């Protein structure tokens, strides 16, 4: 009898299946309905396999948050890369990527709300949240600086812009009949133009 040889790819595939099942369960059932049993049934694996790869369901949820934030970060980075070399175009691309798939997705909203509900009660989730938003604001500060905004203004502008984008993203994904992605982008661009008015790239 030949014993199956499991590769690193097999392990990565199983881990990813568990992460995807967790995200789907959070979106559909929230924290209360996301258990080891629910995740494993969705992923088609045993509870023992989950515990083999993760130190329980809390650790898996934290890893799912990391994976979700990485997906969002990759979408923003791709948008900036596609915008070319112009600093204003790159800033606008970064900001408006939040209003297009895969970021503007009702399923992602449902999953994100589940993560947010844990920020005040779960130290691991709180740490990931803080790191994610610190990184997002840092990217914005760099893009704003490239557009000529004075360094002293960049931090407060990045905080305000993050709040604006989060609010528009939340409303857009909660009820896309309220306004369109194009309208959300236009509102954000008008805010940016007002902020950058009078700042020269020379």
Short account of what is shown:
The protein is mostly helical and 202 residues long. Helix content is 73%, strand content 0%.
Question: Could you describe the 3D structure shown?
Answer:
This protein has 202 residues and is mainly α. It has a domain at 62-196: Tetracycline Repressor, domain 2 (Orthogonal Bundle), CATH 1.10.357. Helix content is 73%, strand content 0%. It has helices at 8-29, 36-43, 47-53, 57-82, 87-96, 106-116, 123-146, 151-174, 181-196. Helix 8 (151-174) packs antiparallel against helix 9 (181-196). The longest helix is centred in the middle third of the chain and has 26 residues, at 57-82. It is elongated. The N and C termini lie far apart (73 Å). Mean pLDDT is 90; it is low at 1-8.
């Amino acid at each position: 009898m030949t014993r199956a040889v499991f590769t690193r790819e097999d392990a990565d595939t199983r881990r990813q299946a568990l992460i995807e099942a967790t995200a789907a369960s959070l979106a559909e059932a929230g924290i209360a309905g996301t258990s080891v049993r629910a995740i494993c049934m969705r992923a088609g694996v045993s509870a023992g396999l989950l515990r083999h790869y993760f130190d329980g369901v809390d650790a898996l949820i934290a890893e799912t948050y990391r994976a979700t934030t990485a997906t969002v970060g990759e979408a923003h980075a791709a948008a900036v890369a596609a915008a070319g070399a112009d600093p204003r175009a790159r800033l606008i691309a970064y900001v408006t990527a939040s209003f297009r798939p895969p970021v503007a997705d009702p399923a992602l909203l449902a999953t994100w709300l589940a993560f947010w509900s844990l920020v005040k009660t779960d130290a691991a989730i709180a740490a990931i949240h803080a790191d994610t938003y610190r990184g997002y604001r840092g990217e914005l500060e760099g893009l704003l600086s490239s557009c000529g905004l004075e360094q002293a203004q960049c931090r407060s502008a990045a905080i305000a812009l993050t709040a604006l984008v989060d609010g528009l993203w939340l409303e857009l994904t909660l009820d896309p009949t309220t306004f369109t992605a194009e309208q959300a982008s236009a509102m954000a661009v008008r805010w940016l133009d007002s902020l950058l008015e009078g700042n020269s790239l020379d």
